[in-house]
Write a structure and sequence with these properties.
It is a single chain. This protein is 40% helix and 21% strand. It contains eight helices and twelve strands. Strands 2-1-3-4-5 form a five-stranded parallel β-sheet, with helices on both faces. Helix 6 packs across helix 8. The longest helix has 15 residues.
């Protein structure tokens, strides 16, 4: 399924620029401008790659990197305005897999991210994942969804919600987490997720009033109700 990238960058414009480029690759994206929140998201979001700015306003990027390395082997691509050789070496010593200095080309960041993920063994998404005994087919590479043999046209947000839920069938995702992965905290309210889910159900459920694909977990959020086929 879609690889997940966590962007940790305090400048909103840079966060959203990188988000747009990474989502074009078909990846699921989490964003935050806080080092403290990054540590939490690295656990709850289970990203395949962390793009980490060193110049954060609360917890330093170095501290975030050290904490991530203490608890996981998740690849880290560092972003920084520090261009000196000693700074690059320091970043690599902290456990970074690569290092990009500002100003940078977003395309370069994407290419470096792809290279890191290749080395980590997770570079490409697999095509045609099947769920619910073939009821739902999700093609990450083509951004296509087939439900009961019919191709369904989804908006980018509807696609993002379904693709995120399908990453781990049965796992409950809160509205806030879906919002972050699909749209970013800055541009929508949690309740907007409900509207998008309602529209998504109209397109993919046999009975939208009694859904079995995108299920509601009262007081918590949503989950994919059909399991992945072996």
């Amino acid at each position: 399924m879609a690889l997940t990238v966590l962007i940790v960058e305090d400048e909103l414009k840079i966060r959203e620029l990188l988000r747009s480029y990474l989502e074009r690759e078909g990846w699921s994206v989490l964003t935050t401008g806080s080092g403290a929140e990054a540590i939490t998201l690295a656990v709850s979001g289970e990203p395949d790659l962390v793009i980490l700015d060193l110049g954060l306003p609360d917890v330093s990027g170095e501290t975030v990197a050290a904490e991530l390395r203490r608890t996981s082997a998740t690849p880290i691509l560092m972003l920084t305005a520090r261009a000196g050789e000693a700074d690059r070496i320091r970043g690599l010593e902290l456990g970074a897999d690569d290092y990009v200095t500002k100003p940078f080309s977003p395309r370069e960041v994407v290419l470096r991210a792809r290279a890191i993920l290749r080395r980590a063994g997770g570079a490409v998404s697999e095509r045609g994942r099947s769920f619910g005994g073939g009821e739902v087919l999700i093609d990450e590479d083509r951004h296509e969804v087939t439900v009961r043999g019919q191709t369904v046209e989804l908006t980018p947000t509807e696609w993002g919600i379904l693709a995120t839920l399908a990453t781990r069938p049965g796992r409950v995702y809160s509205r806030l987490e879906l919002l972050n992965r699909v749209r970013g905290y800055e541009f929508a309210s949690e309740r907007s997720v409900d509207s998008h889910v309602k529209n998504l159900r109209r397109k993919i459920e046999r009975d939208p009033a009694n859904p079995n694909i995108v299920e509601t977990v009262l007081g918590t959020g949503y989950r994919l109700g059909v399991g992945r086929d072996e």
